[in-house]
Amino acid sequence: MPEKRPFERLPADVSPINYSLCLKPDLLDFTFEGKLEAAAQVRQATNQIVMNCADIDIITASYAPEGDEEIHATGFNYQNEDEKVTLSFPSTLQTGTGTLKIDFVGELNDKMKGFYRSKYTTPSGEVRYAAVTQFENVIDRKPYPDDENVVEVKFARTPVMSTYLVAFVVGEYDFVETRSKDGVCVRVYTPVGKAEQGKFALEVAAKTLPFYKDYFNVPYPLPKIDLIAIADFAAGAMENWGLVTYRETALLIDPKNSCSSSRQWVALVVGHELAHQWFGNLVTMEWWTHLWLNEGFASWIEYLCVDHCFPEYDIWTQFVSADYTRAQELDALDNSHPIEVSVGHPAEVDEIFDAISYSKGASVIRMLHDYIGDKDFKKGMNMYLTKFQQKNAATEDLWESLENASGKPIAAVMNTWTKQMGFPLIYVEAEQVEDDRLLRLSQRKFCASGPYVGEDCPQWMVPITISTSEDPNHAKLKILMDKPEMNVVLKNVKPDQWVKLNLGTVGFYRTQYSSAMLESLLPGIRDLSLPPVDRLGLQNDLFSLARAGIISTVEVLKVMEAFVNEPNYTVWSDLSCNLGILSTLLSHTDFYEEIQEFVKDVFSPIGERLGWDPKPGEGHLDALLRGLVLGKLGKAGHKATLEEARRRFKDHVEGKQILSADLRSPVYLTVLKHGDGTTLDIMLKLHKQADMQEEKNRIERVLGATLSPELIQKVLTFALSEEVRPQDTVSVIGGVAGGSKHGRKAAWKFIKDNWEELYNRYQGGFLISRLIKLSVEGFAVDKMAGEVKAFFESHPAPSAERTIQQCCENILLNAAWLKRDAESIHQYLLQRKASPPTA
Ligand code: BES
Ligand code: ZN
């Protein structure tokens, strides 16, 4: 990593007590005027006040000691790089309290940061603007106020809080309202005319507040909460205290036009942001090093909350595929980072809103919750929130509360997971000793390029659970592995029983079984006697072992074929994701078609079982599974699926039979991938006509499936057009890169050619990291790693530095994987074609 930029936190000699802020936005000129009156305390005599400040101009500033004359600041020294300003006073400000007054002006920018403008269209088609805020991680600055035609709205005083959690929105909205069981007034604000679409989120929020109140045993600290959908919004949502802002697609649900996965997404996001009202807002991290605590915790408990509201989603299994495996993929890289990472300059803050803080953070909390047990965990949470309310806290503080509540060595265990990067690979072999099974376990850091070599291998304290075929859903034994090697005796295990580690795929490690142990587990996949989340974990471990060169990829293909009877959506979804990675890899070879044949063979039995139309009694997960399977088959060119998709698409476009929301993505994808310029034009027309942002996004994400070079170019140009909201450009370009071999090259060239515009659009920021990741990760030739590295050396993107290194590492890993296994995969696929396996 390059040298860290020097950065100092604000001095503590003057601290704010209460801000009173008056703002006057002008939605025609895109400017605002502000007046700040802050009660402040001078703790140490000084003639300077240093504050955070970005993109605003101070007109006047003064400080008046209590009962004394104002002293006017004579100099404003902006340190723009560090987002700070130093006010200089002609005389010393003595210790004591006083009033700081600042008049300032600023611009309502279009960068989705600070106080900005968001563009929207009214029901009659008029373009208008709203003024919106996004202050995290903007370390707290920007705006902080006379005309007869102006309406003044006053807000009540808040509890003591961090300034990054302040929000205000000025614009036209409708809303729906309810009162939660515990008496909080809940509103969901929607675009004008779309109040109905706020009902789903309203219901979720009203159920969630009492759930958290009960879980934390701390009431929601404000009398009201508003949730609002913002047209132009960089993140998914932001937990501002009492006014949570969301992308439209993370809040609005239309009963007819929203698909099941959107409903689930809205529930998760609402659950996440409302959790922050306690964990993050009532108690705030002491510094960005502890950001993970905020995000990891919220990313864990959002699942607990959704599981409470919608048990039929089987959401915890989905956690494993969405967060746990994603975190392990990233954390196996040499360019990963510890969960707790020292953060200095603001640019480094953007960098850590990544899968380590979110998904690994959530995964280790899930492991910890399992290790402690729900009762003591809740007790500890309450101790922590009560002790630190309206204050700041650090990671150690949470460990201490949980340690007190549980009597277990929490800090010792957790430090091994949060202070060092990576996670272990547990190797296990077994021996039958009379009536017992002796297990020999050893741990070694798992790296994406194989097991860690060399001395000083990091060690973890690993909570391990062991189950057997006698009772696959319960742990026969729980141990804490606190050394490199350990022997364990399982009493009374018959020779024909299988033994499995990591029940529920809760421990944050991968497992490598001896061949004999693995052999004994595989029938449990076929006959479904292994629980779903264990089938998923086993398959995922094997896949990553293959990618790391520890086992052969052909072995994994054989295991995938054992999933013929698989009914579980999430198990399929994870398998599908891995097959997608393999397909992308093999798109670099001349036997891409053969792997498509394999995909079709694996997915057609389940496709036939499901059919196209929902059967009576089906639910949420069946809808998700059907969409997944048909999309996979359609994309791979499965003939019957392709024909039916075309037929239904035609009826949809002609208005004869509108496609159900759950079938749209797979159908759009299928017809585009196997379609021509006319199909693309129809899709672009559907995009233009769509009234819901969800539908626009659905279309944007599949456009990259188109195959011909001219059409790909058309999609890329569209990505930067006015038709696509600024935050969504990323997924259009990313879709092109992931859509085909030619798309990958074209997307990369497009990014290079339009770098300045893209960089400027996101002002650095985390969206630029996401764009880079989606666009270059799929390369599999060594020299591309060099090319990517060289490009960013001459076009620096400070907040994406680590992402770029991770991408280069992934490119090299792909190349090595291809060299190692391509030939044997090809041979296996050919031989399979010659003598197809019998199901
Ligand atoms: N605090 C974040 C929003 C945020 C993200 C601010 C990045 C600044 C930079 C919020 O709580 C969050 O985590 N939002 C997620 C959605 C969530 C459901 C995972 C997001 O925006 O992706
Ligand atoms: Zn969050």
What can you see in these coordinates?
The chain is of the alpha+beta class. The two termini are 51 Å apart. It is built from 27 helices and 25 strands. The strands form 7 sheets. Strands 1-2-8-4-5 form a 5-stranded antiparallel beta sheet, with no helix packed on it. The chain has a 5-stranded mixed beta sheet with strand order 11-12-13-15-14, with helices on one face. Strands 18, 19, 20, 23 and 25 form a 5-stranded mixed beta sheet that branches. The chain is 44% helix and 20% strand. The model has no long low-confidence stretch (mean pLDDT 95). Keywords: Aminopeptidase, Cytoplasm, Hydrolase, Metal-binding, Metalloprotease, Protease, Signal-anchor, Transmembrane, Zinc.
The hetero molecules present are: ligand BES, zinc ion
Hey, roughly how much beta strand do the residues contain? 15-25%
Range of helix content = 40-55%
The overall average pLDDT, rounded, is 95
Strand order of the biggest β-sheet:
1-2-8-4-5
Domain ERAP1-like C-terminal: 498-811
Domain Aminopeptidase N-like N-terminal: 16-142
Family: Belongs to the peptidase M1 family.
Pfam families: ERAP1_C, Peptidase_M1, Peptidase_M1_N
Topology (SSEs and partners):
Layout: E1 14-26, E2 31-42, E3 46-52, E4 56-65, E5 71-72, E6 75-79, E7 84-93, E8 96-107, E9 114-121, E10 127-134, E11 174-179, E12 185-190, H1 199-216, E13 224-230, E14 237-238, E15 243-247, H2 260-276, E16 283-285, H3 291-309, H4 315-331, H5 346-351, H6 356-372, H7 374-388, E17 391-393, H8 395-406, H9 410-418, E18 424-433, E19 436-447, E20 450-451, E21 462-468, E22 477-481, E23 485-490, E24 499-501, E25 510-513, H10 515-521, H11 523-526, H12 532-547, H13 553-561, H14 569-586, H15 592-610, H16 620-635, H17 639-653, H18 661-673, H19 677-689, H20 693-702, H21 709-719, H22 729-739, H23 741-753, H24 755-762, H25 765-776, H26 782-794, H27 801-834
The structure holds ligand BES and zinc ion.
